[in-house]
Design goal:
Elements (H helix, E strand, L loop, with lengths): L8 H14 L7 E6 L5 E3 L5 E6 L2 E8 L3 E7 L5 E5 L15 E3 L3 E7 L5 E7 L5 E4 L13 E4 L2 E5 L6 E4 L7 E2 L1 H4 L4 E10 L2 E8 L2 E7 L6 E8 L6 E6 L4 E7 L3 E7 L4 E7 L3 E10 L2 E8 L7 E5 L6 E6 L11 E5 L2 E5 L3 E4 L7 E2 L14 E3 L2 E7 L6 E7 L7 E2 L6 E9 L2 E6 L10 E5 L7 E5 L2 E3 L11 E4 L6 E4 L15 E3 L7 E2 L9 E6 L5 E5 L4 E5 L6 E6 L9 E3 L3 E5 L6 E4 L6 E5 L6 E7 L2 E7 L6 E6 L7 E4 L3 E2 L5 E3 L2 E7 L5 E6 L7 E5 L6 E8 L2 E8 L2 E8 L7 E7 L5 E4 L3 E3 L2 E8 L7 E5 L7 E3 L6 E2 L5 E2 L5 E7 L3 E7 L7 E4 L11 E2 L6 E6 L5 E7 L11
Antiparallel strand pairs: 1-77, 2-39, 3-4, 4-5, 5-6, 7-8, 8-9, 9-10, 11-12, 12-13, 13-14, 15-16, 16-17, 17-18, 19-20, 20-21, 21-22, 23-24, 24-25, 25-26, 27-28, 28-29, 29-30, 31-32, 32-33, 33-34, 35-36, 36-37, 37-38, 40-41, 41-42, 42-43, 44-45, 45-46, 46-47, 48-49, 49-50, 50-51, 52-53, 53-54, ...
Length: about 900
Amino acid sequence: MAKSCLPRLGAILSWLALASTSHAAVEPLVAHMVRDINTTPAAGLAGPGGFTAGNGRIYFAATTPESGRELFSFDGATNVRLEADVVAGTGSANPRAGLIFAGTRTVYFVADVAGGSMGLYALDSVTHVVTSITSSPSWAGADRDIARVVGDRLLFVSWADRKLWTSDGTVAGTVPLDTVLGAQRTVLGASLAVDQGKLYFLADGPDGTTLWSSDGRPEGTHLVRVLDPALHAEAACTIAYDGGYWAFVVDSGARSLWRYSFAGAELVRLSDVAGGTLDCRVAGMGSDIYFVLSPTGFPHPETLWRSTPTPGGVSLVAALSNDPGANAVEDIAAYGANLVFRSDVLWRSDGTTAGTRVVMTPEGVVRPYSTFRRVAGGLVFSAVTDSPATPGPMWVTDGTDLGTHRVAASDGLLLDDAAILQARVYAIRSFGSDPSNASDIWSSDGTASGTRQAARLWETTGDAMPADESTSASRSNSDGRSLLFWNVNDWTVPLNPPNRLWMSDGTANGTRGLSATVYGGRIGAAAPGMDGGAIFASYEDAMIYVADAGLQHVTPVASSDAYFFQGFTSLAGRNAIFSCAMGAGLCGLDATLSHGTILTQDLYGAFASVGDAGGAAVFFADATGLSGWELWRSDGTAAGTFRLIQTLTPQTAVAIERDGQIYFPACDASDVCSIYVSDATRAGTRAVTPFGHPGSNLLSMAFFGDRLLFVTFKDGVYSLWCYDTAAGSAPALLLTRGGAADPVQRFSLLSPSRSGVRFAVSPASEGAVGMLYTSDGTAAGTQHVASGSAWQPTAELFAAYDDDRTVYTCWAADTGTELCETDGSDSGTRLVRDIFPGPSWSRITPMSTRHRIYFTADDAHHGLELWTVEGERLFVDGFDP
């Protein structure tokens, strides 16, 4: 009777026995960094933002591994401190940039609250006590324009209903001012100005648009003036000036410019604007107000206007551009006797037509992109470089040509989010367009000598291992425990990309790097060599080298000028094969590793390795240079290099070795795709079974006893199959996942263990939970395990130990993606280590060998380095590195 993938009594009893013993208490696995290869100091990605000055300090949100994203402060000199760890430990409250407000003692900030919304918090800067102001309305959708600090109180407009609220930093003292303003009156949120301990604001109600003042108390809130009983404003914007007056724009369908004198309590409607749009681009210089008017229809130019303190005293100053494609003016400020404003270039004006023009520096025109910040030496701003993705240098201007110049060593200062403390600007410096790619705070007084790094929030060291998996490479050495790897970031070699050859046995002392001074310094390809050493090729000096096991002695063995190193591999450390250059065929090193030779010229040159069998390499080779694939073998000699199957195309780069044979997917000349087996002989190379449905791709394979389990993918559906190699029967379908009703993001590699083959499925549906599965090769024995675990699998780094524990990458909300272990039970599923503290990903990438798990990871303070897991011997029956 033919055998098949049906349950066998002996296998089931064996599995039950193992399952019952594997759940016994065992020592947890230990993951640790092997060695800090790159010790160059670097900054972590703290991403500080929301800078606000108050109480002699700068307050901001930032991220550290220990605290998560919380509220910090800096005194401008040396003292950086965590002010509020709202979510204790590594969790994050995420204080919102732009919603941090500093009073005389209390610092108000908006951050996460339970339920996923945003709420108001108050920090007492003396006692450092943080209060969650649960009486505050939601701040969802709010921005900085709706709130102002008056003394030590925060006055703000609720985003939902446009009511004015006041807070003294307590729950009881955070209340709406409806009793004074009336329930039918709404506040125009952007119309806020502070003078002499009072907030001035506009409101709209049954009696029209009105002007109010408040000190934050109900009894200190008063109506100042009715603008116009017939005027009902929909919006307003404001800028208050040092000149003792307040200018604001009221939008009631048409826009009008108003002026209020704080000292004289005089309200004047300066102008109704026709023929253009009056935005909130307003600045005061002396007693006059200057504003920019946009034409009703495009194209530009925009125009600059001046208004005197008296009604009707409005006059045109100048057109700002004759170029119809010029950008709109985005910011305007006054410095001394000059106005400065920015569009696509920097402009200045002294209030006259002739004096309104583009600023011309010795370097030419300047292209600003940030707001202006006032420091001791003038107005500073960031400018655009030729690369829009890279923040440019900081400039300083006093509104004149000669007074406008670049500040040296200031590239990357992001001044749109900055604060002024003691006439210095504080901001982050980033060498990319994303502010989160920064950790250091810089300060400047507008001079080169006064521009410097002020604080580092997160200290780490540089990455040793490449962050991009596609740029790294590794091989298991002959002992099955040591790891050979290269393309490691080496800060001592000025190459792009710099790299060195390294070898590790899993210990710090046993992790050695080959000195780049003994070869060209840039590895093109490498493979394990004799006696635990290595064979490698260098791009820089076009040589092939042999290194000893200690990577101390290196011998050049052949010039690589004639070779192209695609598919470079060694054969049990005895010799090496690789593609010849210019399609000359297959080349190799002889058994003495002393010189190169051409093994065959019947190949075009490109080839893809399948694996080793019987001391020979089995590989796909392009016979024509036009993807005319064939299956070949080579033992490193000309006589032992020959074709196994003509016209055979690799299907996917999946292969496993078992009992001296290699199993792999391929498609024949008729485009029939099957699983093939090869022992590197013609007689022993054949198709054993078609796989999956026609048109499927084979993604993974693993053995459990005689049963070959494999995963196929077609049209969004993943299928798990079993092929019994002893019975030779047709594959049996065990499990399907995916499709429109069950979208799957990822199906992991299959990982053999003593009790079955384990794998994970990650659903694509939001909120769906990833599942761990085990299979003994039968439909009934294919079940999900550890269903109650909080550690969701993420389908990476699967390997099993002899005690039946499987290591995998997992995800949880409070740890992010980290390393877990499971014995297939809920109680036996646990976190190995939260390598990068908190919810951030530790950037794990597997680099395993046959007998040890290696991977790269980042623990937040050592960059991306080499790590390993200490445990009992890896389960190697069917395991493939």
